[in-house]
TrEMBL record, chain A:
The keyword Transmembrane helix applies. InterPro entries: ABC-2_transporter-like (IPR010390). It comes from the Bacteria. Keywords: Membrane, Transmembrane, Transmembrane helix. The chain crosses the membrane at residues 32-53, 65-86, 115-139, 151-172, 208-230, 236-257. The keyword Electron transport does not apply. This is ABC-2 family transporter protein. Pfam families: ABC2_membrane_6.
TrEMBL record, chain B:
This is ABC-2 family transporter protein. The keyword Transmembrane applies. Keywords: Membrane, Transmembrane, Transmembrane helix. InterPro entries: ABC-2_transporter-like (IPR010390). The chain crosses the membrane at residues 30-50, 70-86, 121-142, 148-177, 189-209, 235-255. It comes from the Bacteria. Coiled coil: none annotated. The keyword Cell cycle does not apply.
Length: 269, 272
């Protein structure tokens, strides 16, 4: 019972913290608009790239246009969820450097929850809308045999993809506890590794495949879901891999945050 | 004798700014290294992707795999010459209001920002070029142009820097009308990447899009240096392209100047 209660309390707190941030953001309407437009532009750019390339060739290593669009969209969609609902991960570095994490440690609410809700990236809204449109298009354009089970699994795969993405973001941003540099680009570097997962990872060398499938498992956000949904795999159980990866990522991110927090000493005044 | 003392008085302030910006860049070495590594990740991804695209094909849109490889490197170099850091510095000044201090200085804001950008480019760009060329020289199969084209290429890379500065500066000034820079920077990156040829060589575009890209200033950032390096144009053609880059650099500079004088009239600085 207590688990249920604490989950409900966490969700309630999340809603309240998110709501406060949302009110702050909506004060600046120009920005709100610019962020959404820029996110949409960036996404369309990726699609233009694929479109231009696929105009010249029929497939890349056996993967057709819409299959790759699906992987693209999964990366953008999860990025969108990460920005819209958990933008705070990207601000952890600033919090640590300015010593503002102190405030959060004093409140009787989980610091992770407070960090996660420490901001909203309105660009996420653009990403999510375009991401869903692209995923929808891809799944209808490719000839697939849908069953009830497969639909459920598809929903599950999207949820775990978001969980993996947010966990990787959080884990990468905990580097701020160790790299005390205002322009810490390490999280961006990890984020950029997601680029590899926009394409079928089999085109890359073994080292890169291991990197995005094991060390920083972006492949479970896009590649493995695509592998399952487009029936590329001979094993029917491949869909189990992303949820397992999500649990693994969540645990690692949580642990890194705890270890980092223990190391945290405020910016002295 | 310090060589700078012989420069006209009005120049000295700007060389001073450039030097400080250089020192600033050197002070944040680690962030440069990580930045470089993170954009190198993108280069590797693109390389492997194009490698797969070219598998079993000799040429696409008139480019061979060897030319494509070379193109990717050139595009990487010209993109890393002006870092994200110098870009956000312009908008940062506007957003946090420190631009008000610049208004009091007897310096031209635009020239000072150019000096600052060039200063950090000397360090960052220089390092990038050196590292990239070491990588390139050790990797076989990258084309090397003849002497005259190499010379013209270097000139066009310098001109591309001015074109890019013009675009970045205008985008930075847009922050007078917004409260954040991230969206503007992203939008600028997307547009630049598409029309400059950084996303994909312009010859891959359908005819209308290619024509559109060629009348816009963005092509001067990647497309022009790359076509000179790949010797797609003869010497006269290259000189023509260089002249076009310079024209665009001037036009953008003037646009930036106009925009600045207009923006400054409606500035509101909070606090103080």
């Amino acid at each position: 019972m207590s688990i249920l209660r604490s989950t409900r309390r966490t969700l309630f707190l999340y809603r309240r913290l998110f709501g406060t941030q949302l009110k702050a953001i909506l004060e600046y309407q120009t920005d709100f608009f610019i962020m959404i437009v820029s996110a949409v532009l960036t996404q369309l750019l990726g699609i233009v790239f694929l479109w231009v390339v696929y105009n010249r060739i029929p497939d890349i290593n056996g993967w057709t246009f819409w299959e790759v669009v699906f992987m693209y969209a999964m990366i953008y969609l999860t990025e969108g969820f990460g920005s819209l609902f958990f933008e705070g991960t990207w601000r952890l570095g600033g919090l640590v450097n300015r010593g503002e994490l102190d405030v959060m440690l004093l409140r009787p609410v989980s610091p992770i929850l407070q960090v996660l809700t420490n901001g909203i990236g309105m660009n996420g809204l653009g990403n999510i809308v375009i991401g869903f449109i692209m995923i929808g298009q891809a799944l209808t354009k490719v000839d697939l045999h849908w069953s009830f089970g497969k639909i459920l699994i598809a929903i599950l795969l999207i949820l775990t993809a978001v969980a993996i993405r947010v966990s990787i973001n959080l884990a990468a941003n905990t580097s701020a506890f160790w790299i005390k540099n205002a322009g810490n680009a390490f999280p961006i570097m990890i984020h950029n590794l997601g680029e590899f997962a926009k394409y079928p990872i089999t085109i890359f060398s073994m080292g890169i495949q291991l990197l995005v499938a094991v060390l920083v498992p972006f492949a479970f956000v896009s590649f493995f879901p695509a592998y399952y949904l487009f029936d590329k795999s001979t094993s029917p159980w491949i869909w189990l891999a992303p949820p397992v990866a999500a649990i693994y990522c969540g645990a690692v991110a949580y642990m890194l945050f705890r270890i980092g927090l223990r190391k945290y000493e405020s910016a002295g005044n | 004798m310090n060589a700078w003392l012989r420069l006209p008085r009005s120049w000295r302030a700007y060389t001073g700014i450039a030097t400080r910006s250089m020192q600033n860049t050197l002070a944040y070495r680690l962030s440069y290294v990580v930045n470089f590594a993170s954009s190198f990740v993108l280069l590797i991804a693109m390389y492997a992707l194009w490698n797969a695209i070219y598998a079993g094909r000799d040429e696409l849109a008139g480019m061979s795999w060897t030319q494509m490889k070379t193109y990717l490197i050139i595009s990487f170099i010209s993109n890393s010459l002006l870092s994200y850091y110098s870009e956000t510095r312009i908008s940062g000044k506007i957003l946090d209001g420190s631009v008000s201090a610049d208004l009091l200085k007897p310096l031209d804001f635009q020239k000072a920002r150019l000096a600052e950008t060039l200063g950090s480019t000397v360090i960052e760009g220089g390092l990038t070029v050196i590292i990239t060329f070491i990588v390139v020289l050790s990797a076989s199969g990258i084309l090397k142009p003849d002497f005259i084209h190499s010379l013209l290429f270097i000139l066009s890379i310098l001109a591309s820097l001015l074109v890019k500065f013009g675009i970045v500066y205008i985008a930075g000034l847009l922050c007078f009308w917004s409260t954040g820079s991230l969206g503007i920077v992203w939008a600028r990156m997307a547009v630049t990447s598409l029309f400059s040829g950084a996303l994909v060589p312009l010859s891959f575009f359908p005819g209308w899009l290619e024509k559109l890209s060629l009348v816009l200033p963005f092509q001067g950032i990647v497309h022009t240096p790359a076509s000179i390096y790949l010797e797609e144009v003869n010497v006269w053609g290259a000189l023509g392209l260089l002249a076009l880059q310079c024209v665009w650099a001037c036009v953008l500079w003037l646009c930036g100047k106009l925009m600045w004088s207009w923006a400054v009239r409606q500035i509101t600085i909070h606090g103080g």
